[in-house]
Amino acid sequence: MTNTVRVRFAPSPTGYLHIGGLRTALYNYLFTKHHDGKFILRIEDTDQSRYVEEAEQDIINSLKWSGIDIDEGPETPGEFGPYRQSERKEMYHTFAEQLIEKGQAYYAFDTTDELDQMRERLKKSGNPSPKYDAITRQSMKNSLTLPQEEVEKRLERGDEYVVRLKVPRRETVRFEDLIRGHVSFETKGLDDQVLLKSDGMPTYHLANVVDDHEMQISHVIRGEEWLSSTPKHVLLYNAFGWEIPQMAHLPLIMSPSGGKLSKRKAESEGIPINTKDYIDQNYEPEALVNFLAYLGWSPGDDSEIHSLDELIELFTMDRVSKGGAVFNHKKLLWYNEHYLREQPDSQIADRLKVISDDGLIDNVNDEYLKSAVGLLKERISKIEEILEMGRFFFEDPKEYDEKALKKWKDESAELVGLYKTEIEELSDFEAGNLKSSLESVINAKDVGFGKLMMPLRIAITGQGFGPDLFASMELLGKEAVTRRIDTALEKLG
What we know:
The chain is mainly α. It has 21 helices and 11 strands. The model has no long low-confidence stretch (mean pLDDT 95).
């Protein structure tokens, strides 16, 4: 094996890339780039029954959006390809044959019915979890129990078979995990794992081990759910006589209500589950990356905001936690606000033109749009909220917020009318003067600030909240402001 750090992210194209998968990819990427290594994307598409046409492209798009560069993969082939398991089929057969020759694997000809009968028989005799193992294989139809001539005859005849790993009966499998430390399993709990299925496709276990060896993968960094498969992989490495990569099993992502963050739980808690959802909902990629990096890892100080390059610099495996990390959606929005506010107003304005699909800002002057962004961006969590909260910058209010209208009292019309008279006289329609005019009206009428401020906000924006009202009026200009006040006085009286 080379001294270069080589890691792989190896998703199955059975659906869109889950955020748990994105975090696994991110940790692989941070780790390998910290060590100047290579990040490999391998598509594990051996399960043809669950294959989803657009899933592979979704995985590639999601990684690109997140800023994770693929060094080798289906679109960027290197010398260890092909990078789709379905294109490596011949190789798995060769290696399965090698194991049979070494006596480490065997052909099994049992039909589905025969397997069912074996399980039933064992259940009846008091075995709660029957499996095909060192004991039960003795009474089944396989190349260990059948005469050599019959095995050859069956193979020539084209009988259906699977290839199974010959798991030793009483051994302890031990390995060191970079996150969990010393791990051991007893082989008596393992079945004789199928390596090649009857359709000639390899199972995950065989393909995974062969590919990791052939692609010279130095570190296998994957989710905790694969921990129980690792002893089977260790047995396979030993059977081949290969060096085992370093293993690291990442903690689960937990739901705020407890337990693993499943699709169902995420939906009930309003958490987008696929990376595609975050792209479609206009989250900032830097925010999601920064947030996911901290879901199970921390740099050991109080810092929270880091760019991808800084995360690469800081990331070490000894700071990854063993326990699950709770997905806190509020925290993600906090990150999103931060990365949104970091962007220049002009950049956000350009993005809004792409996002807006109802013609609202099609004919808006660039400078005007930029100014509106400047007034709104400190008050929002996600970019599209600018168009929701700031709609009044682009069109007169069509209706008035129900809740806000409770603040429109009997004296409101008179106060707003007086204010309109004041500001019509202004030669310089700027925020400071607009505020002074308001003070002059409330002093003359001897009422509190809110008595005029709230009705005025409703008249101008249709809402009970929003950006600085005087700066907003300055941007809207005298004509729009006085027109809106007239409309409000007419409608609300």
